[in-house]
Amino acid sequence: MTASNNKPKKVVARPAQSRFYNNSTAVDAFYQKNEFNLESNSEVRRAADFISNPFLLEPEPALKHYVAQVKSTYKIVRDTVANLHNAKYIDTLFHLNFDSSTVELYYPVYTQRYLLSYADVKSQNLTLRNGIKVGMTRDELIKKIQGYKLYIKEQKNVIEVCDWERNSWLRFHLSKGRITSIQYEGYVD
Prior knowledge:
Structural class: alpha+beta
Order of helices and strands: HHHEEEEHEEEE
Shape: globular
Strand order of the largest sheet: 1-2-3-4-8-7-6-5
Number of strands: 8
Helix content: 10-25%
Distance between the termini: 78 Å
Largest sheet: 8 strands, antiparallel
Strand content: 25-35%
């Protein structure tokens, strides 16, 4: 055995893998602390207002408000569905399609209000009301959504945001540290 074989091998240090963002513990603590005044808490109302409709500031949004936000050619597809609670009512689904993206609005006949039920946005031509859009960096996204009392959980290439009841969700899909699509699932009943 020669002396050259006894030399310790150099080990290349790998950078520590960055931890994924998860604020669940802090948000749980906030909601437990405020469980008796959730309805009157301004931070809870602000978070609920945002997650119920992250695209528009309109208190009573309509299809025309979404159309006004889209900055490209679009098509509206209308479909009817039976109301889940009363089959004699026929409700309407409106699909706003643009740039390989879709926004679905549910219009129940009994409320005559447009409710955002689903969105899959792959284009920069529809921005969330707080400026979040496709193409934004992960760090910019985290900075913008941290201001809401919402659950934020990051997994590999996806950041999920939901309300305290976990009824409405935003999913931000990432590639190379940038948002490639924004998905929304809302609760409509």
